[in-house]
Model the fold of this input.
Amino acid sequence: MDLVPALQEPLRQPLKSVLGPATAKVMAEHLGLLTVGDLLHHYPRRYEERGQLTHLADLPMDEHVTVVAQVADARLHTFASTRAPRGKGQRLEVTITDGSGRLQLVFFGNGVHKPHKELLPGTRAMFAGKVSVFNRQLQLAHPAYELLKGDAEETVESWAGALIPLYPATAKLESWKIAKAVQTVLPSAQEAVDPLPGSLREGRGLVTLPEALLKIHRPHTKADIADARARLKWDEAFVLQVALARRRYADAQLPAVARKPRPDGLLAAFDDRLPFTLTEGQQKVSREIFDDLATEHPMHRLLQGEVGSGKTLVALRAMLAVVDTGGQAAMLAPTEVLAQQHHRSVTEMMGELAEGGMLGGAEHATKVVLLTGSMGAAARRHALLDLATGEAGIVIGTHALIEDKVQFHDLGLVVVDEQHRFGVEQRDALRGKGKQPPHLLVMTATPIPRTVAMTVFGDLETSVLDQLPAGRSPIASHVVPAADKPHFLARAWERVREEAAKGHQAYVVCPRIGDEEDDEKKAARKQSAEDEAEKRPPLAVLDVAGQLTEGPLHGLRVEVLHGRMQPDDKEAVMRRFAAGETDVLVATTVIEVGVNVPNATVMVIMDADRFGVSQLHQLRGRVGRGSAPGLCLLVTEMPEASAARQRLNAVAATLDGFELSRIDLEQRREGDVLGQAQSGARSSLRVLAVIEDEEIIAEARQEAAAVVAADPELEHLPGLRTALEALLDEEREQYLEKG
Done:
């Protein structure tokens, strides 16, 4: 049974449009609403109560707002201007009030006549426009408005009920015009096919979908809104979780080669040479991974852990277990710096076990090769040959690993580092290189709250490393308010010198590189309104390095590292820093993940407010990796009361990445966080809040797994199948592919 055509009906048609062609065009272009169903799922952002007015006192600058208020007074002024030199220019100033504050509206020229007649003192209306400042006063220039007359038939009809819905609107289409359009299509809601199985809906006391749509758009009471939202949240959580459950089910049907570690092979030899014992957490997660590898279906596991919790070690042990079975393992890193870093740390950890086929190599040794796009032709040819013959058990590389030329002898395991930087095609292409689908281990260094993991990576089983290995030092973090207390910044540079004097090293991180191309882009962007708040461009690596060398860090060995350097130069800089030949590395966020220099004890992050919470946590994890305590200084010019400073205070106050990722998610719009990993949930999560609705998501996941296990093709649930097809249009299909 297909979705009833009424909801699939386009809003804009050549012969008979549901809405006026102009309205339908704006809806399609600015709000992405194409069908009657799309419009019915465009829910109100909030509701205005008849007796309760918007607080004019809390108006945000530069945003489109809708307010309900009363006209306090209206005055028509005439003035002289270039267009009206004889003093014939007209300006209408209307003051509106809502009890909490007053706001001025202005209309000019021919635009004054209609409002002059209609906006008389005492009139109540809805006003929509962009808040600006003129003469230190907030104002709306030429706002659109809709009179709220109690007696006019149409107004009573269109604002029926005690609650006025206010919709997410745009400059081109005000909230009440959207409300009128919804009013036009609302009868079609009766024909909405319910995606929730009847037993689930009844068991949880949820209203039907047609009733929920009616109540969210035309509520009579607040209880109506609560009923509707509870139901619509379930729809979003359940349909998304069914999509993920079907993905898990399909993966579980695929064949894979079981990889059981040998008791006397490479893994055992590696464990014997480890100078420390694994933490309980590492042992537990390793067991989960080995159990998965031993099955004849591909493993799909997400390994997330705190910065420095030893994820690479756990992943390496899984790779060695696969090599023990005659298979190969590939580790995919997002950047060359990171691929080289992983290659270096893996070969160091393995020692002679990484020298397979060489003199001095151990009995069980294998070859570990590096493959990146910038390698010389000879080295590349050599690496490709080692992969094709099976001589190399482990390969570490960037997306160069995915190219057609790369052939594996027997690819058994793919480890993807920093998953969200890899797209769909890359992962599938690498998967296709195995004789059968290889096992997959995805590592993420950014701790993800449980609910986000269930929503974004819901087709992967999750393992969490939340213990730090013994011997890790604590990291002290402090906010350095450079504008309020410049002497704090001077003290920060003294601390860097003190650490260098003890033989330690430091990182200084800046938000941008600072060469011409960068500046031109910045200048182009500078003109946008969002950037006006940022009075100066972010500090740049090249500028800061020069200032430090000539100023507070004079005499220390300072080098720079950024993404636009030649790969060989980057590698050389990293080697010198790792070898202790450089005191201070001034870098962009290329050092954010994976860089491991235990002797580095201080990190100074310039313009720290320009970075996200999880990014700051990542960066901070680069220090305190040895036996000496770490220090992270977050330098900012933001004032004490600002949201940016509160964010930095939160980072300074805790080293718990899971706690910080929760804070991060609460402070940012949900779509941003979900959008990093996929595009689909952003368009499909309208009422579901990933952090607040933790219970609904967890329950929906269980219900979805049960439904899919019983009826994988959803043959008995046509409404659910239809809802899935709507969610999984092409773009969203891709998001699920990312896993």
Summary: The radius of gyration is 30 Å. The mean pLDDT is 80.
